[in-house]
Amino acid sequence: MPVIQAPQATSHDNRPTAHAATYSLAEVVRISGLDEETLRWYEDQGLIEGVQEDPYGGRAYGPVHLRWLEFLEHLRSTGMPQDRMGRYVELYRAGDSTLAARRGLLEAHRETLRDRSREFGATLRYLDWKIGFYLEREAVLLRAAA
User: Fold this and answer.
1) Quick one: DSSP state of residue 59?
2) pTM score, two decimals?
């Protein structure tokens, strides 16, 4: 997912201000690279909130939504389950008293990713060996055919 750049128009607690720029659904799709279904899924799951209606009846997103979408897409791309993403959002909405719990949730997920990274490393080494085996075997067969 591309890094989403949006103007900084938030209050001290990172919530949208009255002066925050708004983006239509089409603009958020273009900026974020997400499709409409994914955006609706995030809303339906309660992972993003505060999406307003524009004067024409469309959805109007703010810069804070773009930052949330970027963060949530990073979590989703690493395989974090929706229920844990939802838990993180609940903790965030509960305020600063949950900082340690949010950090702990992310640390646990990071450790899961580290474990998976080690597993992928072992699998990559095995695949490298197997590809090398085939390259050597093909070379032997080519020499024998010549």
Assistant:
1) E
2) 0.71
